Fold:
Amino acid sequence: MIVFDGDGAVLGRLGSRIAKHLLKGEEVHLINAEKIVISGNKNQIVERYRVRRRLRSKQNPEKSPKWPKRPDLLVRRIIRGMLPRKKATGRNAFKRLRVYIGNPKNFENAEKTEKKELVKKITVGELCAELGWREKHG
Structure:
């Protein structure tokens, strides 16, 4: 079992590393999903995901399936796109992925990824808050 800490990690790079481990047959747990960073212009990123969630306008909605609001489900959905999910190996690999908001089980052996200082960035938690997700306290 491999545990990744998403605090400050870039989403695409972390997702591709996780996908490789899943395809090798390893079980992967990802903690702190809401602290993963998406690089780029904040307004453009939020607008892209709003269109995907069909929140932009009722006049011209995108005809694709809905995307989740919660950070853990959003990250899981993005990693699913990096796996061959229509084949048996991809489906089995996706079942071995666990994504958590925060650090619920206090994994001490979490593999830290190197943090890059980005000029323009938004975290997955901020993106999901823009899309309407409200974190439950308590």
